[in-house]
Amino acid sequence: MKIICLHGGGANSNVTPVIYELGKSEKIEFYFIDGPIECAPAIGVAEQYDGPYRRFLNNDAPHSTQVTSLARSLSKSVTGPEDFARELRKRGMADADSSQACDYVEQQIEQHVDGPFDGVLGFSEGSSVAASLMLRRAVQGRAPLFKFAIFFCAVLTFRFDGKGAILADERPERINVPTFHVVGARDPGRFSSLTLYNLCDRHLTALYDHGKGHTIPWGLPTEDITKGVREVTRRAQMDT
Fold first, then answer.
1. Rounded Cα–Cα distance for residues 114 and 132 (Å)
2. Exposure on the CB side of residue 90, measured as CA atoms within 13 A
3. Cβ of 74: how many Cβ atoms within 10 Å?
4. pLDDT of residue 220
């Protein structure tokens, strides 16, 4: 089984704890795409990983440092994920266009010498771009690129036909393959992750809260996440 991985904004293609855990027992090959745009590191990344640091979305998308501060205050006052996104929109923090990022990732995948890939794994901005691409292909009536998707701590999913976030109570398109969503109870952007969860077919999706922040943790939560990843890959194989 082959999985393509998309990193978060302000990061790069470093091995994550989940990939380490899966690699010990599962026959999964992981491949990586680096974002095309060099940028400043995300919070805490420079202390752990060397640069250069990259992102997929263009500069219209807010940097994680900007969103984190605002998200902390908004998460205490809004009533749900979509309302959270609309509050960000009012403040000009949800106006990105994912079309160029989708074009780039799609081209990289189609030209990758090790493709095709069974699934996609994204963290933060990487989850957002993967979801936008999957939704775009569905709207265009094209065959899915992936049999399943794994989304970690997703930021907002941005439109591919204009600027703005894609929200489940505003648009009809859905991701109709098995998905596994990992969120963190202490992630300031947790509501962003839940907007993506709401864009997926509820009969084909699962949600896990690791209880921490905007991260993929080591330790017991990683083992639990690994079980969820195994389940979504198993379900995808049953559906094919």
1. 23
2. 9
3. 19
4. 67
Q: Which two tokens stand for residue 78?
A: 């809004």
pLDDT for 59 equals 62
Q: Which two tokens stand for residue 235?
A: 């379900």
Taking the C-alpha atoms of residue 10 and residue 63, their distance in angstroms, rounded to an integer, is 8
Round to whole Å and give the CA distance between 198 and 28.
28
- To which residue do tokens 């640091």 refer? 53
Specify the pairing of strand 53-55 against strand 37-39: antiparallel
**Torsion sign (Cα): 86, 133, 146, 8:** negative
Task: Give the chain's radius of gyration (CA, Å).
Answer: 16
Query: Shortest CA distance to 6 belongs to which of 32, 29, 30?
Result: 32
Report which of 178, 184, 115 is spatially closest to residue 154, judged by C-alpha positions.
Answer: 184
Average pLDDT over residues 207-219: 84
- Torsion of the alpha carbons at 221, 41, 121 and 83, rounded to the nearest 10: 80
Phi (first) and psi of residue 129, to 5 degrees: -70, -40
Give Cα 43 to chain centroid, integer Å: 17
- Take residue 49 and report the two structure tokens written for it: 């990983």
pTM above 0.85, yes or no: yes
Question: What is the identity of the amino acid at 87?
Answer: E
Q: What is the pLDDT of residue 111?
A: 93
> What whole-number distance in Å separates Cα of residue 53 and Cα of residue 167?
29
Residue 173's SS3 state is coil
